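pinging the channel bc i need a second pair of eyes. not urgent but kinda urgent?? the chain im working w is below, pasted from the shared doc
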Amino acid sequence: MKPISEFYDLLNKSTKTKKVVITMHQKPDGDAMGSTLALYHLLVKLGHQVQVISPTNWASFLDWIPGAQQVWDYEKTRMFSDPCIKAADWIFCLDFNVLYRTKNMEPALLEAKAVKILIDHHEQPQTEAFDYGISIPGKSSTCEMVYDFIVSSGHRELIDPDLASCIYTGLMTDTGSFRFPSTTASVHEVIADLKNLGLVHSQVHEHIYDSNSEQRLRFLGHSLLKRMEVLYEFNTAIMTIPKADLLTFHTKTGDTEGLVNYLLSIEGIRFGAIVIDRDEERKWSFRSKGDFDVNEFARKHFNGGGHKNAAGGNTGDSLAETVQKFKRVLLDYKSALN
């Protein structure tokens, strides 16, 4: 994988309209949608033919992001998406480090002859899968990296309020509204620049955090009351969500987003974990404070990975079996968590 700086010449010297596909990880969050749509707006302004394709659907509270209505859901548009991927000149892969995180899109991406460009902040990228790229785990978000890409390639003047809103969405959500350690001075410098370029940040907060349905709040209350277990001897809290709860409260994509963060809000808790019973697998989300590395924990025990303080995993075990395994494995980390 060549440095992304070597791609700038291709971007800036291309006089011919390129067919471009931009994609992200399955079940995209605010950073994935924000970064892909920010790049979408840039490349459209540069005169290219651009299509954003998400491997799956996404949470409805992201539908307001400028350009979201033009995004294709691969699972619903495969007959159009596959030829689009095949015909692409450039494929940008944002906010994921390995191709399998695009779920059913992976074979089409592997077969595509396009130049593939990675922009991501997760550890251990699949470098052999990309022609150009940049991977900086220390960055707050992929949105911050897209901002850097735009500025470093010489196109800051193309950032308008819509593009700025896209970038701010990922900056805000991936830093936990700027409270996580990943919120560096450079993050605030980016925000200051976006504000000078027309960003109305309060509207982004309102779209993301003030759009809950009544059912989601009832689901949240039930989960905190009935599904949370606090293991004080390990400074750990776990939430176990059975499939029956998802059906009872008619949950939609995105309704479980952020639940794990409530666990870390308990005084003294350093490790929070939530497991959700999905049809095909059990999905884990891990969060931590301080030096406890949930990326290493997820990779070693739950087929996952991510960042030092935020990671995910999955398993084919039953809900009861995977919770038992979690508690068994936790014994090995008691000293680290205390």
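so The chain has two domains: 2-209, 214-337. and The two ends are 40 Å apart (CA to CA). — does that match what u expected or am i reading it wrong
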